[in-house]
Amino acid sequence: MPRRSFASLVAATLLLVGMISPAGAVTGDVLVSAGSPTSPFSQNKQNEPGLAIDPSHPEIVAAGANDNIDLETCNAGNPKTCPFTAGVGVSGIYFSPDGGNSWTQPTYTGYSARGCAGPAACTPNPVGPIGTLPWYYENGMISNGDPVLAFGPKPDTSGHFAWSNGSRLYYSNITTKFGAFYQQEPFSGFAAIAVSRTDYVRAAAGGGVAGKAAWMPPVVVTKQNAAVFQDK
User: Which residue has the higher pLDDT, 11 or 58?
Assistant: First the structure.
Protein backbone atom coordinates (compact mmCIF):
# COMPACT_ATOMS: atom_id res chain seq x y z
CA MET A 1 0.00 0.00 0.00
CA PRO A 2 1.55 3.36 -0.98
CA ARG A 3 2.42 5.74 1.83
CA ARG A 4 0.57 9.02 2.15
CA SER A 5 1.16 12.05 4.32
CA PHE A 6 -0.77 12.51 7.57
CA ALA A 7 -2.36 15.68 6.16
CA SER A 8 -3.47 13.88 3.00
CA LEU A 9 -5.04 10.98 4.91
CA VAL A 10 -6.98 13.26 7.25
CA ALA A 11 -7.99 15.61 4.45
CA ALA A 12 -9.31 12.69 2.41
CA THR A 13 -11.40 11.57 5.35
CA LEU A 14 -12.73 15.05 5.96
CA LEU A 15 -13.72 15.47 2.31
CA LEU A 16 -16.28 12.75 2.94
CA VAL A 17 -17.28 14.26 6.27
CA GLY A 18 -17.64 17.70 4.71
CA MET A 19 -20.61 16.49 2.68
CA ILE A 20 -22.64 16.33 5.89
CA SER A 21 -20.74 18.86 8.00
CA PRO A 22 -22.16 22.37 8.39
CA ALA A 23 -18.60 23.65 8.12
CA GLY A 24 -18.51 22.55 4.47
CA ALA A 25 -16.09 20.32 2.61
CA VAL A 26 -12.36 20.77 2.97
CA THR A 27 -10.75 22.00 -0.24
CA GLY A 28 -7.25 20.65 -0.76
CA ASP A 29 -4.79 19.31 1.79
CA VAL A 30 -4.83 20.84 5.27
CA LEU A 31 -1.87 20.56 7.65
CA VAL A 32 -3.15 18.86 10.78
CA SER A 33 0.08 18.89 12.81
CA ALA A 34 0.06 22.69 12.71
CA GLY A 35 2.27 23.12 15.78
CA SER A 36 5.04 20.80 14.65
CA PRO A 37 8.10 22.24 12.90
CA THR A 38 9.03 21.52 9.29
CA SER A 39 12.55 20.72 10.53
CA PRO A 40 14.76 19.41 12.11
CA PHE A 41 14.35 15.64 12.13
CA SER A 42 12.89 13.95 14.02
CA GLN A 43 10.78 16.69 15.61
CA ASN A 44 9.02 17.11 12.25
CA LYS A 45 7.90 13.48 12.06
CA GLN A 46 4.35 12.12 12.47
CA ASN A 47 2.74 8.81 11.53
CA GLU A 48 -0.10 6.38 12.34
CA PRO A 49 -2.89 8.98 12.62
CA GLY A 50 -6.31 8.57 14.21
CA LEU A 51 -9.41 10.76 13.85
CA ALA A 52 -12.73 11.38 15.62
CA ILE A 53 -15.72 13.62 14.82
CA ASP A 54 -18.17 14.78 17.47
CA PRO A 55 -21.57 13.54 16.20
CA SER A 56 -23.40 16.17 18.25
CA HIS A 57 -21.20 18.96 16.87
CA PRO A 58 -19.73 17.66 13.59
CA GLU A 59 -17.71 20.82 13.11
CA ILE A 60 -15.55 19.66 16.06
CA VAL A 61 -12.83 17.21 14.98
CA ALA A 62 -9.97 15.72 16.99
CA ALA A 63 -6.97 13.86 15.62
CA GLY A 64 -3.94 12.10 17.01
CA ALA A 65 -0.68 10.67 15.68
CA ASN A 66 2.69 9.39 16.72
CA ASP A 67 4.37 12.80 16.89
CA ASN A 68 8.06 13.40 17.66
CA ILE A 69 7.64 17.13 18.31
CA ASP A 70 8.95 16.85 21.88
CA LEU A 71 11.93 14.54 21.21
CA GLU A 72 15.54 15.69 21.00
CA THR A 73 16.87 16.39 17.51
CA CYS A 74 19.36 14.10 15.84
CA ASN A 75 22.04 16.77 16.39
CA ALA A 76 21.90 16.46 20.18
CA GLY A 77 24.67 14.43 21.78
CA ASN A 78 26.11 11.73 19.54
CA PRO A 79 25.43 12.92 15.94
CA LYS A 80 25.55 9.31 14.70
CA THR A 81 22.39 8.42 16.62
CA CYS A 82 18.82 9.69 16.45
CA PRO A 83 17.23 8.28 19.58
CA PHE A 84 13.76 8.35 21.01
CA THR A 85 14.42 10.45 24.10
CA ALA A 86 13.76 8.31 27.17
CA GLY A 87 10.66 9.42 29.07
CA VAL A 88 9.29 11.78 26.40
CA GLY A 89 5.77 11.09 25.11
CA VAL A 90 4.82 10.85 21.43
CA SER A 91 0.99 10.83 21.41
CA GLY A 92 0.29 14.04 19.50
CA ILE A 93 -3.12 15.75 19.74
CA TYR A 94 -4.76 18.17 17.27
CA PHE A 95 -8.16 19.91 17.08
CA SER A 96 -10.27 21.51 14.37
CA PRO A 97 -13.19 23.85 15.25
CA ASP A 98 -14.51 24.07 11.69
CA GLY A 99 -14.87 20.61 10.19
CA GLY A 100 -11.20 20.24 9.29
CA ASN A 101 -10.64 23.51 7.44
CA SER A 102 -8.13 24.64 10.08
CA TRP A 103 -6.25 22.92 12.88
CA THR A 104 -4.50 23.76 16.13
CA GLN A 105 -1.94 21.73 18.06
CA PRO A 106 -2.17 22.82 21.70
CA THR A 107 0.90 23.24 23.87
CA TYR A 108 0.78 21.88 27.41
CA THR A 109 3.58 21.24 29.92
CA GLY A 110 5.26 17.94 30.69
CA TYR A 111 8.49 16.00 30.25
CA SER A 112 9.99 17.53 27.12
CA ALA A 113 13.22 17.43 25.11
CA ARG A 114 11.99 19.98 22.57
CA GLY A 115 14.83 22.34 23.49
CA CYS A 116 17.54 19.71 22.90
CA ALA A 117 18.85 20.88 19.53
CA GLY A 118 22.53 20.00 20.11
CA PRO A 119 25.39 19.72 19.97
CA ALA A 120 25.24 19.19 23.74
CA ALA A 121 23.75 15.98 25.10
CA CYS A 122 20.05 16.22 25.91
CA THR A 123 18.73 17.04 29.38
CA PRO A 124 14.91 16.95 29.20
CA ASN A 125 12.79 19.51 31.04
CA PRO A 126 10.11 18.00 33.33
CA VAL A 127 7.94 21.12 32.93
CA GLY A 128 8.78 21.90 29.32
CA PRO A 129 6.41 22.47 26.39
CA ILE A 130 4.68 19.42 24.94
CA GLY A 131 2.36 18.95 21.96
CA THR A 132 1.31 15.52 23.20
CA LEU A 133 -1.15 14.21 25.79
CA PRO A 134 -0.69 15.77 29.24
CA TRP A 135 -0.57 14.17 32.71
CA TYR A 136 1.50 11.12 31.75
CA TYR A 137 4.79 12.19 33.34
CA GLU A 138 2.98 13.29 36.49
CA ASN A 139 1.47 9.80 36.77
CA GLY A 140 4.69 7.85 36.16
CA MET A 141 3.86 6.97 32.55
CA ILE A 142 4.87 7.82 28.98
CA SER A 143 2.36 8.32 26.15
CA ASN A 144 3.74 5.95 23.54
CA GLY A 145 1.53 6.50 20.49
CA ASP A 146 -0.68 4.27 18.32
CA PRO A 147 -3.70 6.54 18.90
CA VAL A 148 -7.38 5.65 18.64
CA LEU A 149 -9.87 8.47 19.24
CA ALA A 150 -13.65 8.49 19.73
CA PHE A 151 -16.38 10.83 20.93
CA GLY A 152 -19.13 9.60 23.22
CA PRO A 153 -21.86 11.09 25.40
CA LYS A 154 -20.84 12.76 28.64
CA PRO A 155 -22.11 11.31 31.93
CA ASP A 156 -24.07 13.32 34.46
CA THR A 157 -23.40 13.32 38.21
CA SER A 158 -25.31 10.05 38.62
CA GLY A 159 -23.19 8.30 35.99
CA HIS A 160 -25.90 8.30 33.28
CA PHE A 161 -24.44 8.85 29.81
CA ALA A 162 -26.49 11.01 27.43
CA TRP A 163 -25.68 13.31 24.50
CA SER A 164 -27.84 15.96 26.16
CA ASN A 165 -25.13 16.20 28.84
CA GLY A 166 -22.51 17.09 26.25
CA SER A 167 -19.69 15.23 24.51
CA ARG A 168 -16.64 13.43 25.87
CA LEU A 169 -13.47 12.77 23.84
CA TYR A 170 -11.56 9.55 24.46
CA TYR A 171 -7.95 9.11 23.34
CA SER A 172 -6.43 5.64 23.80
CA ASN A 173 -2.77 4.84 23.26
CA ILE A 174 0.08 2.60 24.32
CA THR A 175 1.76 3.62 27.55
CA THR A 176 5.02 2.54 29.16
CA LYS A 177 6.42 3.27 32.60
CA PHE A 178 8.44 6.43 33.07
CA GLY A 179 11.08 5.20 35.46
CA ALA A 180 11.98 3.51 38.70
CA PHE A 181 11.88 6.54 40.99
CA TYR A 182 8.13 6.21 41.55
CA GLN A 183 7.37 4.34 44.77
CA GLN A 184 4.52 2.43 43.15
CA GLU A 185 4.53 1.32 39.54
CA PRO A 186 1.49 2.48 37.56
CA PHE A 187 0.97 -1.03 36.13
CA SER A 188 2.63 -4.43 35.74
CA GLY A 189 4.40 -5.55 32.58
CA PHE A 190 6.26 -3.46 30.01
CA ALA A 191 3.45 -1.74 28.10
CA ALA A 192 -0.25 -1.15 28.72
CA ILE A 193 -3.15 0.65 27.05
CA ALA A 194 -4.26 3.91 28.67
CA VAL A 195 -7.13 6.25 27.90
CA SER A 196 -7.18 10.02 28.31
CA ARG A 197 -10.53 11.86 28.45
CA THR A 198 -11.82 15.40 28.21
CA ASP A 199 -15.32 16.83 28.50
CA TYR A 200 -14.07 20.27 27.51
CA VAL A 201 -12.66 19.98 23.99
CA ARG A 202 -12.61 23.72 23.27
CA ALA A 203 -10.63 24.38 26.45
CA ALA A 204 -8.26 21.47 25.73
CA ALA A 205 -7.68 22.83 22.23
CA GLY A 206 -6.55 26.15 23.69
CA GLY A 207 -3.54 24.62 25.44
CA GLY A 208 -1.83 26.27 28.39
CA VAL A 209 -2.79 25.71 32.02
CA ALA A 210 -6.53 25.69 31.32
CA GLY A 211 -6.09 23.31 28.40
CA LYS A 212 -4.08 20.87 30.47
CA ALA A 213 -6.65 21.07 33.28
CA ALA A 214 -9.38 20.15 30.78
CA TRP A 215 -7.91 16.65 30.49
CA MET A 216 -8.49 13.95 33.10
CA PRO A 217 -5.40 11.92 34.09
CA PRO A 218 -4.84 8.80 31.94
CA VAL A 219 -6.44 5.54 33.09
CA VAL A 220 -4.90 2.11 32.40
CA VAL A 221 -7.66 0.01 30.87
CA THR A 222 -5.86 -3.30 30.27
CA LYS A 223 -5.39 -6.12 32.76
CA GLN A 224 -1.67 -6.39 33.34
CA ASN A 225 0.88 -8.85 34.66
CA ALA A 226 4.66 -8.84 34.51
CA ALA A 227 4.74 -10.75 31.21
CA VAL A 228 2.22 -8.62 29.29
CA PHE A 229 3.17 -6.32 26.42
CA GLN A 230 0.13 -4.51 25.01
CA ASP A 231 0.01 -3.10 21.47
CA LYS A 232 -2.53 -1.34 19.29
Answer: 58
Residue 183 Ramachandran class (φ > 0 left, ψ -120 to 50 alpha, else beta): alpha
Contact 90, 68 (CB under 8 A): yes
Tell me how far apart the alpha carbons of residues 111 and 116 are, in angstroms, rounded to a whole number: 12
Phi, psi of 13 (to 5 degrees): -65, -45
Among 31, 61, 30, which Cα is nearest to 46's? 31
User: Residue 152 — φ and ψ, nearest 5°?
Assistant: -145, 175
Please state, in angstroms and as integers, the Cα–Cα distance from residue 1 to each residue in 4, 231, following that order. Answer: 9, 22
pLDDT in tens, 157-193: 999 999 999 999 999 999 999 975 455 678 888 889 9
**pTM summary value:** 0.84
Structure confidence by residue, pLDDT tens digits, 77-118:
877 777 788 899 999 999 999 999 999 999 999 999 998 887
